[in-house]
């Protein structure tokens, strides 16, 4: 039979375990014989200690009065030893055994220790992972990405209206335990960082730029590579990738491969980003030189000088070099060209948008070499 006792503080619980054999078992601490069960019950109910217990203690009982509050002198070791032989109620050979439970504070410390044993996420690791990821949004862009490289998807968001068209994507995400969320338009705008999300957004692992040497090993006999010097506007990059996919140009030599996977660039490409590959060299000039040594013709562009496009014969293997609209190609890049081309027009504007000029030039290469 088990009884439970709580102290005044409520923090320490004491459990008394009584011998079921009538209290005849010797006390494990003193080695003395146990009391009969009837006498134990009488002592438990009566409360005051017996005269024999007072004699065993080696000192008379003091009355609970004025003397109770006085400070007591130090006890000798023998008295302390005799006192330790008794239980909390003064019975030296009681059949009740006390078991103290740990206080609440100790339990809290144990909980803190268990919490501290959980793995700690390294902020530096999270930062590196974020650098390796990018957001892609837009229905056509996300459909093309899923068809091309679904394993790169980390997380996805959809609005309810587009889910019927992404039924296969949703099944694949669920089967591969990829997190996805069906949210409202405002929540998707927060996740994608733009209001022009097209109803869907993916977080994906970025692709790395392919080294020039690796590209040259698998290049075909007819190969047009586009080289972009300091072109960083995502909408221009998206339009260029869309034109490349349309005219069969698969390689883009760029300074920073991650620019081709920005959300706005991929959205503007309307799926064309999945049909081109970023190429990187030790530097932009070093990349051009490597292509020249491999037999490619370096073709530069200019709005003021060069062979008119309608009169030029474009080689089957060439690198078409374009620069930013405002300043065009740098002098060093322009001087590396084997052929310089210009696009004729009325002259009412100084030059064409770089993505528009790219489309015109690639269309002519496709016409001559397709």
Automatic annotation (TrEMBL):
**What Pfam families does its record include?**
SpoU_methylase, SpoU_sub_bind
Q: Which GO terms describe its molecular function?
A: methyltransferase activity
Q: Where are the transmembrane segments?
A: none
Q: Which GO terms describe its biological process?
A: methylation
Per UniProt, the ranges with Basic and acidic residues bias are 52-91
Protein name, UniProt field: tRNA/rRNA methyltransferase
Does the record bear rRNA-binding in its keywords?
no
The scientific name of the source species is Pantoea dispersa
Q: Which UniProt keywords apply?
A: Methyltransferase, Transferase
Occurrences of domain RNA 2-O ribose methyltransferase substrate binding (ranges): 135-210
| Enzyme Commission number(s) | 2.1.1.-
Cross-referenced InterPro entries: Alpha/beta_knot_MTases (IPR029028), Ribosomal_eL30-like_sf (IPR029064), rRNA_MeTrfase_TrmH (IPR004441), SpoU_MeTrfase (IPR001537), SpoU_subst-bd (IPR013123), tRNA_m1G_MTases_N (IPR029026), YfiF_prd (IPR016479)
Superkingdom per UniProt: Bacteria
Q: Where is this region: Disordered?
A: 1-125
